[in-house]
Structures are given as C-alpha cells and as structure tokens.
C-alpha cells in the first residue's frame, strides 16, 4: 500500500489493515484525462464535521423510537456510509470531550486530559502543520465556521482553534476562540466575553483581565447577533458573523427534578437551534471562493446524558437530527462537500427497555419502577419513576411503551459509528472500522486533495 494512501501511515493505523476494500480505495487514482481548455474547473471541496457529543447508537435508537417510531428512519439513519468508531485515548480506553476533539482536530492521539495539546505539550497536526486542520484551512485561504449549542469554550469546536494546558481555563479559551479569525462562530458563553461588572445581554461578565471581547469582535468587523430572530435577519452578503446566544450554554443541563423545581426549559427559548445555527453558517460559508470547513457540535446530547436526563437527551438528539437534515440537503445541492458525523464517547450509557417477560411493569400510561432489578435508574417521560415513554406509531399504527435505563453518570466507550454522505464518504464504509485519528485523515484528504501523511 502506498505510504501516502488514505488512512495508512508509518503508525500502521487500524483502518489501513481492516479490509481489502480499503486497500482498493487507498490506491492512487489513475491520472485524469486532459481537460479541454474551456472546461469549467472543479469546485473547491468543502467539509462539514458534525459532532453530536456523547451520542452513541443506543441514543440514536431512543430518538428513532420517539420521533419516527421503530419502523421509521431518522436523518441520521439515512446517511449512506458508516463504520465502527474506535475512540481510545493515549492513556485510556474511553474518550473525553477535550481529548477526543483534539484528536479529531490534529489527527494525533493524545492524553485524555488534553485541549489542543498532548496534555501540556504542544503538538503539530498529522500533516506537519503547526496547528489544527482548522488553522491550516485558514492559512490556505479556506473559510472556517464553528457552531455549538454549548458555550464558546466547549472543546468539540474550541479545540480546533484553541490550545491550553487546562480545560477549565474558560476565559482564556474564549479569548483564543475570539481571536481565531474564523469567518463565522455561533454558540453561547457570553459571560466569558465580558469583564466582571459589565452587564451583557444575558447577564454579568466574568473575565478578570478587563478584556471586552464583544467590543474587540466588532472592531474586527464581525456582525454580532444574540437571538434567533437577529440571526435570521442577518443581511445577505455578510462575510464575518459572530453569534452569542446565552450567558453560558443554550440549554439547561440539569436533571429532571432540578429543572422542574427551578422551572427551567431544556433550551433557552431565544436561542437558535443547532439546525438554525448550521443553516445560517452554511449560507455564509457557501460563498467561500476556495472551499470551507464547518465544525458543528450539539453539546446538549452529552450534557443531558451525563445528568441522566432522558427527556433532555432525547430533545437534544432530535435537534441534532434536524441539523443532519440541514447538512444532507446542503450536500445534495453541493456534491463537492463531505459531511461526516461521529462522537467521541457515550454519555451515561443510555438504553431502551421495552416490555418483555421480565419487564411487565412497562405499560402505557403507568409509572415505571424507579430502578431496574440490577439497580439501574429508569426514566420515564418526566424523569425517574414517571410515566413510561411511548414510541411514535410503527407501520401498523401501534405505539409501544418503553423505559430509558442509565448505566452511569459519566462517559463510556459505547457503540459509536462514523457516518457520512457526499464527497469521499464511501471511504468510511469501505473501511468498516475507523480510529478517531482517521476522522482527521478523511477531512484533510477532502479539503486539501492529498493525504496528511
């Protein structure tokens, strides 16, 4: 196999060894026939990387039951290419949000406690560039967009443009993101843009260094928006866009009992959804003369799972699925685009339990037991011990009751897929199994038309 072929390197990554199909896909393509002098040049390639954090196959199954029923198909289901995702870290079997994001952004496996570095050591990307794939894209004249339903410091997007020894350096990460030079950034986290004592649209700032990053962004020429209505009204032709839609995250990641006690909705009503943010970002990025990279993350899928809030996690998943619909439609209209999606870990170990010989207490309209026989908490529509969930109708019009069981409050390795559509997406299914570092490889090949290493 050629050293520069996709997914093969001196490290002999797992993806290169899996199947004859990959070997066939990895061979250099035959030289193209000469093009007539007046032929249109091929359009520059685009990449959309979507990260519904913490969402494994089991979570997507729950979304399917609720949104379209057991015989229906979600937008995620309709992505034609898939492979098993292997997401271990340099020093552990289960991926972390910041370590996983760093691996995706640099193509280098790092320690679990890493944010754009390997622990506290600076790194180069797999291509040799002193920076992530997003920074290399900017350096090569491509436009970059970052979209997150969480705050600006969330690693699923921030690790593509920010490097720091400590994940909880929230003010510093936000500063680095604000100074990154990306064309569009849409997320929450206003408190870390403003000095302490300065009142913003959603609350008081928390920065101790006196910097007002909102003023700095305006000085850099960004159009700033703070609500979904303002985002929808952004003028056509805007080339630099920055959205800040909440004091922290655009969701309230509490358990069901706390949400009910404090009368908190799952999501901030004035904030755009991940689908609305992604659609706005694509309207701007589609004008990039040399192609673009969009990194988008639904963070609620992870945070609700980590507090075992089944209604919140399922709503977050439905929102993520709507964003996949936005991306699929864009790829259909722009076939020079690769869209791929995965997550780095499974939040909470969610599982669907339907009635069976041992689960006769799962009945329509009845409250669930608080725990399964092994002690696992069982969530209904309103939280632990509440009314059983009902699926959307199956093909016979039957709605099925079920419970959501949780295995943990943390992240597990879980059953995770890489899925995709569009330019080069067939390489995903030809591989069958993909390492986390190979997410970078396929993005790099598509964006820049060559192998990273």
Quick one: biggest sheet?
Answer: 10 strands, mixed
Helix content: 25-40%
Report the top-level CATH class of the largest domain. Alpha Beta
Compute the CA-based radius of gyration.
Answer: 22 Å
The assigned structural class equals: alpha/beta
Q: Strand arrangement, largest sheet?
A: 5-6-4-3-7-1-8-16-2-17
What's the number of extended β-strand segments?
17
N→C terminal distance: 13 Å
CATH topology of the largest domain: Alkaline Phosphatase, subunit A
Helix count?
14
Which stretches are poorly predicted, pLDDT < 50 over at least 5 residues?
1-39
Oligomeric description of these chains: single chain
Descriptive overview:
The protein has 453 residues and is an alpha/beta fold. The protein folds into 2 domains: 44-350 and 409-448, Alkaline Phosphatase, subunit A; 351-405, no CATH class. It is 28% helix and 16% strand. It has 14 helices and 17 strands. The chain has helices spanning 20-26, 57-67, 97-106, 133-139, 155-158, 170-178, 213-219, 228-232, 256-262, 274-285, 300-303, 310-333, 426-431, 437-448, and strands spanning 46-52, 81-86, 143-151, 184-188, 223-225, 241-244, 292-298, 337-341, 346-347, 351-353, 378-380, 383-384, 389-390, 401-405, 411-412, 417-422, 433-435. A 10-stranded mixed sheet has the order 5-6-4-3-7-1-8-16-2-17, with helices on both faces. Strands 10, 11, 12, 13 and 14 form a 5-stranded antiparallel sheet that branches. A two-stranded antiparallel sheet has the order 9-15. α2 crosses α12 (310-333) and α10 packs parallel to α12. The radius of gyration is 22 Å and the shape is globular. The two termini are 13 Å apart. 53% of the residues are buried.
């Amino acid at each position: 196999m050629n050293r520069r072929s996709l997914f093969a390197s001196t490290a002999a990554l797992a993806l290169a060894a899996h199947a004859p199909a990959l070997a066939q896909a990895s061979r250099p393509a035959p030289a193209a026939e000469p093009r007539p002098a007046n032929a249109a040049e091929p359009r520059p390639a685009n990449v959309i990387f979507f990260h519904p954090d913490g969402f494994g196959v089991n979570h997507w199954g729950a979304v399917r039951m609720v949104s379209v029923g057991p015989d229906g198909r979600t937008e995620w289901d309709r992505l034609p290419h898939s492979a098993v995702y292997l997401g271990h870290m340099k020093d552990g079997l289960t991926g972390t949000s910041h370590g996983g994001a760093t691996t995706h952004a640099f193509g280098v496996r790092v320690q679990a406690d890493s944010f754009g570095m390997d622990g506290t050591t600076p790194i180069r990307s797999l291509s040799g560039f002193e920076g992530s794939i997003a920074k290399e894209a900017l350096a090569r004249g491509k436009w970059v967009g970052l979209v997150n339903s969480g705050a600006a410091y969330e690693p699923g997007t921030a690790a593509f443009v920010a490097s720091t020894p400590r994940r909880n350096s929230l003010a510093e990460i936000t500063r680095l993101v604000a100074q990154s030079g990306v064309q569009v950034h849409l997320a929450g986290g206003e408190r870390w843009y403003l000095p302490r004592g300065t009142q913003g649209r959603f609350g008081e700032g928390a920065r101790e260094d006196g910097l007002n990053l909102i003023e700095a962004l305006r000085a850099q020429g960004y159009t700033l928006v703070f609500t979904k209505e303002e985002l929808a009204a952004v003028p056509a032709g805007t080339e630099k866009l920055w959205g800040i839609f909440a004091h922290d995250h655009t969701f309230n990641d509490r358990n069901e009992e706390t949400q009910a006690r404090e009368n908190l909705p799952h999501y901030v009503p004035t904030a755009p959804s991940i689908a609305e943010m992604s659609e706005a970002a694509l309207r701007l990025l589609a004008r990039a003369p040399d192609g673009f990279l969009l990194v988008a993350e639904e963070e609620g899928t992870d945070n609700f799972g980590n507090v075992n809030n089944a209604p919140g996690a399922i709503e977050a998943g439905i929102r993520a699925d709507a964003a996949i619909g936005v991306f699929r439609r864009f790829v259909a209209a722009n076939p020079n685009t690769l869209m791929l999606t995965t997550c780095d870990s499974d939040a909470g170990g969610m599982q669907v339990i339907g009635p069976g010989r041992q689960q006769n207490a799962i009945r329509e309209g009845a409250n669930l037991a608080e725990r399964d026989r092994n002690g696992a908490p069982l969530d209904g529509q309103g939280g632990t011990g509440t009314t059983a969930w009902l699926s959307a109708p199956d093909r016979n019009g039957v709605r099925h009751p079920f419970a959501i069981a949780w295995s943990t409050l943390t992240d597990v390795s879980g059953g995770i897929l890489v899925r995709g559509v569009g330019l080069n997406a067939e390489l995903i299914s030809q591989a069958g199994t993909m390492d986390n570092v190979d997410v970078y490889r396929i993005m790099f090949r598509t964006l820049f038309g060559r192998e990273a290493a």
